[in-house]
Amino acid sequence: MSTTDTSSNQWESESSKKEVAHQEVAHSQQAGNVQREPDDHITEFPNTWSKYRAVIREPVAEFLGVCILIIFGTGVDCQVVLSSNTGVAPGPKGEYLSINFGWAVGTAMGVWVSGGISGGHINPAVTLALAVYRGFPWKKVPIYIASQLFGGIMGAALVYWNYFHAINIYEGGNGVRTLKTAGLFSTYALSYMSNVSCFFSEFLATAVLLIVVFAMNDRRNAPPPSGLAPLLLFLLILGIGASLGMETGYAINPARDLGPRLLTAMVGYGKDVFTFRNQYWIWCPIMGPFLGALAGGAFYDLFLFTGDESIFNKPNAEARKRHLHAARTQRPHIPSGADAV
C-alpha cells in the first residue's frame, strides 16, 4: 500500500469518526441531553441583566404573586356583582360561592408563581409571622411588604380598567363612584357588625390561615407532597371564605385590602374609602390580620412545633452549656416547585 493510499484511508477514517460524533451530538440534542465542551462553564450571571434580576427576583415574585391574587379575586367580585345589573349582562354570572372559588384560585396561582422563588408569602401578615417565629430575615420584611402592597395596587388597577364601563353602568353614570362598587375591590363590614365583632372576624380567620400555613411547612407534621401546596392553599382559602367570609369579606391579608383601597382612592372614590366607620380600614383588615397571624403562629409553635427556628424552642442556659439545640424542621420555601422536598 502506498503512502498516498495510507493517508487517504486515515483521512476517510477520521472523517467517518467525526461524522459519527456529529450524529451522536445531534441525537443527544434532540433527546434533550446536550453535550457540553470540556471548557464549557455554567454561570449564574450570563449577562448584565441577570445580575440585576438576582437582586430584584424575590420582591418581584411577591409583587406578581399578589397581583395575580387580586386579579382573580377582585375580578370575580366584579363579575358576580356587576352582572346582576341587566345593563351589564343579560343574567347573573355567579354567586357567593363563585367569589369563594375566585379568591381561592387567586391564592393558589399567586403562590404557584412565587413559591419557589420568594417563599410565596403574598401576604404581609404571613411575612411578619415568619420573621417573628421562623427566622425569616428582618431586613427583607420591608421590601417584601412594599412589593406585596404594590402588587395589590397593580392587580386592582388592571381589574378596574377591565371593568371600567360595567362599573359606570352599575353606578348609573359615567364617573360616578360610591362605596357600592368600592366594595368590589376592598372589604367593608356588614352594617349590623360591631367594631369588636369586625376585628374578631378578621383576627380569627387569619389565625386559622397561619396555623395551616405553619403546619404545611413543618416537616415533622404532615407537609403536602411536592408541588401540592397551592392546592392545599386553594382548599384553605375556599374553606375560610365559605365559613367565615360573610361578615367582613375575609381580607385576612393587609396587602389584599390596602392595595386595592389605595387604587379606589386614586380613581375617584374619594376619602370615603378611608373614613368608613371611623377608619375601619386600619383596625379591621390591617390590624386584625397582623395580630391574628401572630396569635395563630404563636399557638402552633407553643404547642406543636419542635423545630429550632421558633423562639419557643430556643435552648435555655443549661442546653446552651451542653451545646444542645432542637432540630431544624422548617421548609425554606413553600413546596410548590419541581425541586420541593
From TrEMBL:
Entry's transmembrane regions: 60-82, 102-131, 143-163, 192-216, 228-252, 280-305
Record bears the keyword Ribosomal protein: no
Q: What would be one Gene Ontology cellular-component term for the protein?
A: plasma membrane
Disordered as annotated region, ranges:
1-40, 322-341
Where is this protein chiefly located? membrane
Give the location in the cell: Membrane
> What organism is recorded for this protein?
Sphagnurus paluster
Task: State a single Gene Ontology molecular function.
Answer: water channel activity
Record's protein name: Aquaporin
Biased composition of type Basic residues is found at 322-331
Name the InterPro entries on file. Aquaporin-like (IPR023271), MIP (IPR000425), MIP/Aquaporin (IPR050363), MIP_CS (IPR022357)
How is the protein disposed in the membrane? Multi-pass membrane protein
What segments bear the compositional bias annotation Basic and acidic residues? 14-25
> Of which family is this protein a member?
Belongs to the MIP/aquaporin (TC 1.A.8) family.
User: Any keyword DNA repair?
Assistant: no
Q: Which reaction does it catalyse?
A: H2O(in) = H2O(out)
Q: Where is the composition biased (Polar residues)?
A: 1-13
Q: Could you tell me the keywords of this UniProt record?
A: Membrane, Repeat, Transmembrane, Transmembrane helix, Transport
